[in-house]
Amino acid sequence: MTTLKWIPYVWDEPHPATSREIEQLEHLLGIAFPKAYKEVATQYQGMTPHPAVFNVGRGTNVVNVLLTIIEDPQWRTYSVMRAYDAVKPHVPNGVYPFASTPGGEYLCFDYRGTPEQPKVTLVTVEMFIYPVADSFNDFMARLYDGDAPPA
């Protein structure tokens, strides 16, 4: 498995989220995020993973940034809540963004049918939903640098 490095994106330096901030966001959305996601978001909200390429049914894509748990007034467009407000009217209930791509698409948790272990999906700008991975852990393990997908 490839070791991920995290590169600052929203802020110049890491800006860890607290467990309280994550709990508040979960309460607002009415969901419980996967444990692995909470561990990653606690340390790396607003950052870009490297490698960042992932496969999706229609080809490959890239993780641009892990959306922020908090809504920083200067960087609202990168927050989970702002992304959720943008996609909510266009996607079924149970789909919640956690990262974005350079093309303005969102990686989302899809709780429909698997509330205890949400799948990872890609919501396109046209609001089509494509499956990406069976879990957050699976998604993170599949990220690669673009030269060749992991074996």
Automatic annotation (TrEMBL):
Pfam families, A to Z: SMI1_KNR4
InterPro entries: Knr4/Smi1-like_dom, Knr4/Smi1-like_sf
SMART domains assigned to the protein according to its UniProt record, in alphabetical order: SMI1_KNR4 (SM00860)
Gene3D superfamilies linked to this entry: SMI1/KNR4-like (3.40.1580.10)
Knr4/Smi1-like domain location: 16-142
The protein, known as: SMI1/KNR4 family protein SUKH-1
Species name: Archangium gephyra
